[in-house]
Fold this protein.
Amino acid sequence: MKKERLIALVLCASLCGGSLSACGGGGGKGDGSGHMYGGALQNDPKSLDPQYASDPASATVIKNMYSGLMMKDSSGSIVCCNAEDYDVSEDGCVYTFRLREDNYWFFDRNDDDKIDEDEYFPVTARDYVYAFRRILDPKMHSPYARDFMSIKNSERVLEEGYATTGLGVEAVDNRTLKITLSYPSAEFLGLLTTPAAFPCNEDFFISTKGRYGLDDRSVMSNGPFYVRQWFYDPYGSNNILYMRRNEINMREGYDVLPTFVSFSIEDSEAEVRQCFKDEETECFSTMKVGGYNPKKYSIKGQMATTLGLAFNPDDKQYSNLSLRKAVALAADRAALEGQLGGDLKPAYGIIPPAVDILGRSYRELCDDRQYDEFDTARAVELLAKAKSELKVSSLESVKIIVDSSTIDSRYLHVMSQKWQDYLGIYIGIEDLTTADFNRRLADGDYSIALYPLRGAYNSGLAVFDRFESEDCLRAAAGDSKCCEMIMKCPSADGLVNSYSSAEKEILGQYGFIPLFYKNSYLVANDDNEDIIYDPFTGSIDYRIAKNYS
């Protein structure tokens, strides 16, 4: 057993009066609470700053460390968390939130287990105001800035240098927060459930002198757990991030069931899997689940990724629209029916099934078969047109680069064979490591890539944002303004039509051809319940996790 696991167990024992039975083990056989969870992070968190961090390791710690105005319940509905209640004006542009009095910042200053009164103080409306100002401050370069462009004056702040104090976010008093939008937006409440909308205390932020979120002395918690120790040596092996339950923020309706979460920090998924095998972690997330018996483990998958062909806009052949359209119309997804099992599903649309609207899968509300254009005769005509436009008699063979961690490429070989049968063109497959795949994309060293498209959070808006933020997808969207159209949709009912219109617009450019919807998985020991995995952020949430070992 690794050194950090032993350290965590010793700490657990000391807090439980010398007995491990109250922290998991035998003590977990009642209601499942009180367990000390072992976790494994793949890579050291880059930052624990919710307004900036975006990697999965950071997302996991942030999810267990902070809480926001709103959250999603188990059904996918948006409900109050740190907001006691809220009102929306008749025009849908002004949100007024009344904050709970029992949500506190906690900063661990002591080495013992006693919580001193000077270590915690209330989260106020000003903390949310400061968080939004940070997101939209152009000097910060927050990856979430564009998500909140519906806030009044956000565009002026982000693009024209307007003072952040002019944003439509106001602390009416300590417990009342008013947010004014430029236009009604059905996506706005959902955005408030994301980590970017978690609060930030200005005085504490300034006190960290540029270190905010970068070490265990430069973070505060207002959520279920707080960071007690964070140690990482890139040349060492005993790397750990250790969290304790935040007793100050436990309240009725907001249970925090585990007592501790002790993460080891690993360098690769292979090392995380080894931790799971060695029983040093109760769960791990992965795109590939082969080798784990569902009778022995709890394996839950969510189709949050769309794997599709992305074309290099500078490629001398596949920059041609007629050729891309020929490939799209000759994509015989039906040839894979019955072969994909539960891991993959043929994709005709852009948005994957895990994206929901008011708790229902968007793909249930909008059947993607309406986008099916399979037509080999028309594909042959388009191929001939492409050759004429390119002034060539035949096409050079190319290879699709594939991140081998996302898919077993034998399924793609079936598609490749169909393109050869129908069109007489050879499109091969080149499997790469994740690092090499990302490097090739960044360098533009590819003709076609099987791109894993996934939003940064559970929303169609987040999926389409990739076509504006990712270099390899920008050309696929052309001059599309789909994100702006979606953001200005005033009602949840209207989002279905907005998403569908955006899908049609981008599919019509033939710069991204969806082929598969792909599962992301949480694999856990079967004596655990309610460990919540978010396949969009990559976070694993332990707040209500139960262990019955």
Summary: DSSP finds 16 helices and 25 strands in the chain. Residues 1-65+223-282+531-549 form a domain with the D-Maltodextrin-Binding Protein; domain 2 fold (CATH 3.40.190). The two ends are 18 Å apart (CA to CA). The CA atoms of residues 101 and 365 lie 39 Å apart.
